[in-house]
Design brief:
Structural class: alpha/beta
Low-confidence stretches: none
Strand order of the largest sheet: 1-2-3-4-5-6-7-8
Strand content: 15-25%
Bound molecules: phosphoenolpyruvate
Helix content: 40-55%
Order of helices and strands: EHEHEHEHHEHHEHHEHEH
Oligomer: single chain
Number of helices: 11
């Protein structure tokens, strides 16, 4: 059985005092069937990783540069994330794609860099509201997947997060049928590309307004192996409730 993966993305939220939420989260009982990760701002990564030591909880970065080092002011490499205690790196979040003009080719290079450094990449894909209204979500997600997921992907070094852009931070979610339709499509594409063994082992997460009150239904959906949570991950009580719904 695949281990479920529950990831919190703190985005640009949190200073030292918010580490109290991380400390509170360490009370979450360990569960071999589920992996729980918080991706805090880079400034908190090392401190949070220390708090999580020996608890079974993990940390991740919210982005990484595709290069190993160099003259890239303000950027952070995958090796630096690892050095700060991270095990994961989110790449291609829609806010990176829109705020920083990141293309799927950029995302693929970042995912490759993350894997090479020894992190697991969480590659985000998802359609905009306009694309959903035009019923081209499968085409959009299919293209993003093809261009963003690197050739050396496998179930250990990569997960995919389906995050419809219109559901992020809005309190709106697709219907369970719609989530399942996209996940089924993504699974088929991964299996066709990587073969059944690898394609089926890559975890597919749903992201976009996951809350304690909808986590159970999303968790029980076909081909959903976990979730990526923004707003509700900032509070240990709500994030723990979501994690429990996933295993
Ligand atoms: C996200 O930031 O990836 C996200 C899913 O945010 P929220 O849960 O707040 O919609």
């Amino acid at each position: 059985m695949k281990r479920r993966l529950v990831v919190g993305n703190w985005k640009m939220h949190g200073t030292a005092r918010d580490l109290a939420e991380a400390r509170e989260l360490t009370r979450l009982p360990a569960n071999a069937n589920r992996q729980v990760v918080i991706c805090p701002p880079a400034t908190l990564l090392h401190r949070m990783s220390r708090i999580f030591e020996g608890t079974g909880l993990s940390t991740g970065g919210q982005d990484c540069h595709s290069g190993e080092s160099g003259a890239h002011t303000g950027d952070i490499s995958a090796a630096m994330l690892l050095d700060a205690g991270a095990s994961f790196a989110i790449v291609g979040h829609s806010e990176r794609r829109s705020d920083h003009g990141e293309t799927s080719a950029n995302v693929q290079s970042k995912a490759q860099a993350a894997c090479k450094a020894g992190l697991a990449a969480i590659v985000c894909v998802g359609e905009t509201e306009e694309e959903r209204d035009r019923n081209i979500e499968l085409e959009v997600v299919g293209r993003q997947l093809l261009e963003s997921v690197p050739e050396n992907a496998n179930g250990d070094n990569l997960a995919v997060a389906y995050e419809p852009v219109w559901a992020i931070g809005t309190g709106r979610t697709p219907s369970i049928d719609d989530i399942e339709a996209v996940h089924e499509f993504a699974r088929k594409q991964l299996v066709e590309r990587f073969g059944a063994s690898v394609g089926n082992s890559i975890r597919l997460l749903y992201g976009g307004s996951v809350k304690p009150n909808n986590a159970e239904a999303i968790s029980n959906s076909r081909d959903v192996d976990g979730c990526l949570v923004g707003g509700a991950s900032l509070n240990a009580t709500s994030f723990a409730a979501i994690a429990k719904a996933f295993g």
